[in-house]
Write a structure and sequence with these properties.
The chain has 203 residues and is an alpha+beta fold. The protein is 49% helix and 7% strand. It binds glutathione (GSH).
Length: 203
């Protein structure tokens, strides 16, 4: 069976876990403790020199990086189309903006969790402003405004990023003034693939 390495709160790996569910793919044996990702005995290092999750191992095939992992899942999956927007540049832009938003939140969260005395106010200020700009941009997106956005890779990133920044307590009032985004986020919480792949603890 396919092995998808993940930690219980990794947002990137959560996107892959949700995508695996949508593609009807079962995987086993890849749940790691978060702390293990940064130690020399990290099992991912056997397959991926970056040691990061998600990393997917399917027999002799190793796939790294969230986007590639999800593309692989789509290729071997049940026909679910999570990337049905190749060449649709507004949709590609949405995906890239969502990933950049998540990258910023991940960096900010890492800083936010350090000892208070070591935290950089400058870095947190830069990431806080970036996040606020991105949230406003998503709020104005036609698909988010209408509630008819497709449930594809791009929107999985946005959903997981919103959930992740909330989990880490980054933007306490992110719903204020962004009713469309807040409503869209709440609606996604009902999806079976989201319910089945929530943030979980260590194994
Ligand atoms: N660019 C990567 C980012 C993945 C990533 O940063 N994963 C984090 C967990 S959220 C990780 O493995 N961190 C371990 C570390 O930084 O050593 C992707 O798209 O998959």
């Amino acid at each position: 069976m396919m092995k998808l390495f993940f930690s219980g709160t990794s947002p990137y790996a959560r996107i892959a876990r949700i995508a695996a569910s949508e593609c009807g793919i079962t995987h086993a044996g890849g749940h790691l403790a978060s702390a293990q990702l940064r130690t020399d005995d990290n099992p991912v290092l056997e397959y991926n020199c970056t040691g990061r999750v998600p990393t997917l191992v399917d027999s002799d095939t190793v796939v790294t990086e969230t986007r590639a992992v999800c593309r692989y899942l789509v290729n071997v999956g049940n026909g679910a189309k999570l990337f049905d927007y190749a060449g649709d540049w507004p949709a590609e832009r949405f995906e890239n903006t969502a990933m950049s938003f998540l990258d910023g939140c991940a960096l900010w969260a890492r800083e936010h969790r350090r000892d208070k005395a070591l935290q950089s106010d400058w870095l947190q200020g830069v990431e806080g402003k970036r996040a606020a700009r991105c949230l406003d941009w998503f709020e104005a997106d036609p698909g988010i405004q209408s509630g008819n956005a497709p449930w594809d890779f791009a929107h999985m990133i946005l959903f997981v990023a919103l959930d992740y920044q909330e989990l880490r307590g980054l933007i306490a009032d992110w719903r204020d003034g962004r009713p469309n985004l807040a409503q869209w986020h709440t609606a996604q919480l009902e999806r079976p693939s989201v319910v089945a792949n929530g943030n979980i603890g260590d194994p």
